[in-house]
Amino acid sequence: MNEKIEALLEEINQYQAASDEALEEYRMRFISRKSVVGDLFGEMKDVAPEQRKAMGVKLNELKNTAQEKFKQLIAQLEQYKATKGTQAVPDLTLPPIPDTLGAMHPLTQVRNRIVSIFERMGFNVAEGPEIEDDWHNFTALNFPLNHPAREMQDTFFIEKDPDIVLRTHTSSVQVRLMETQKPPIRAIMPGRVYRNEAISARAHCVFHQVEGLYIDRNVSFADLKQTLLHFARELYGKETKIRLRPSFFPFTEPSAELDIYWGTETEADRRVTKGTGWLEIGGCGMVDPFVLESCGIDSQEFTGFAFGMGIERMAMIKYQIKDLRLFTENDIRFLKQFTPFN
Ligand code: DAH
Predict the structure, then answer these.
(1) How far apart are CA 326 and CA 217, in angstroms?
(2) Residue 86 pLDDT class (50, 70, 90 cuts)
(3) Mean pLDDT in residue range 189-210
(4) Are the C-beta atoms of residues 282 and 232 closer than 8 Å to each other?
(5) pLDDT at residue 173, as a whole number
(6) β-pairing, 185-194 with 124-125?
(7) pLDDT tier at 342 (50, 70, 90 boundaries)?
(8) How far apart are the C-alpha atoms of 292 and 33, rounded to whole Å?
(9) For residue 171, how far is its CA from the centre of ligand 1 (angstroms)?
(10) 307 and 212 in contact (C-beta within 8 Å)?
(11) Which residues contact 325 (CB under 8 A, 6 or more apart)?
(12) Is 337 left (phi over 0), alpha (psi -120 to 50) or beta?
């Protein structure tokens, strides 16, 4: 009897009634004349006389508890009905709240695009250290000793004599590849580079380049031009026009600058292209025989082309971004625009 009372108390305490039916069920089970509580009163006659008094007290307590709970359940149900629809009763038919997905940084997206375009043309991907010695960053690339790029205002020096620098371009990785591999070499080398420059909308002291190198027998300038044209059309669309402008780099001969046609339709177009309609994205040329020889490659047998392009610049063109500082400020409103499912 005692256990039965305990079990019923437990059941009463747990009971919830969110509808009239549930409330009625409660009433039938615990309150009505035929309730389990009533049944227990019937069983009192079987209890040993010396326990009867104590058991009677317990049973009355159970009865009172059941009635108290009934009142509570009525009140709760009333309240539930009154606020139903206005309170936070979950609506299971609503579509789920989507998980907020992170975005890949626009520079990473453009870098990945560049890598996949060149991979399809048979280029490998290589990387080199960001902290470089003078040989790989300058000397092997035919920079004369007094070249202005070696001066303090352009280069971050880590140590002097012998010089250790933060690489100023990814061309240093070309040297490392040529020193360690035999032609044919066909690779691109994306990475971060550093220059001691004032930060503005067009320049930063840390930015990214992708270097390209192709060394084999009979590689010509025509191969270079066709490779760059194909690349530009894959990245920016079939109608994209490119232009190679004669230029100078110590490590290429002849050298050229690569421009992409942007247009002059709006005022903004004219501003970013300085009125010409063309945007410069990098440099290129035929690898200077001096550089091949410095790296242990026979310049009588092999020729090659190289190029180096700015990834920020390419991303600015692709997404029409007017200020390069946006890439590093980590403003969530900027970065969010590049979520894959936006
Ligand atoms: N290293 C040059 C720069 O940082 C870019 C460049 C020009 C790379 C010509 C090359 C090249 O590989 O052939 O401005």
Answers:
(1) 43
(2) low
(3) 92
(4) no
(5) 98
(6) parallel
(7) very low
(8) 105
(9) 6
(10) yes
(11) 199, 200, 201, 204
(12) alpha
Type of residue found at 29: R
SS3 158: strand
Q: Does residue 210's CB lie within 6 angstroms of at least one atom of ligand 1? A: no
- The answer, yes or no, to whether any atom of ligand 1 lies below 6 A from the CB of 294, is no
Q: Which residues contact 178 (CB under 8 A, 6 or more apart)?
A: 185, 213, 215, 291, 292, 295, 296, 297
Residue carrying structure tokens 């010409």: 276
Q: Are 246 and 225 in contact (CB under 8 A)?
A: no
Going 294 to 299 to 301 to 305, the CA torsion angle's sign is positive
Q: Which domains does the chain have, with CATH numbers?
A: 2-85 (no CATH), 106-335 (3.30.930.10)
pTM as predicted: 0.71
Q: Which helix (H) or strand (E) holds 175?
A: helix 171-180
- 207 C-beta closer than 6 A to ligand 1: no
| pLDDT value at 1 more than 90 | no
Residue 334 CA to ligand 1 centre (angstroms): 30
Residue 211 CB–ligand 1 contact under 6 Å: yes
Please tell me the residue having the least CA distance from ligand 1 atom 12. 307
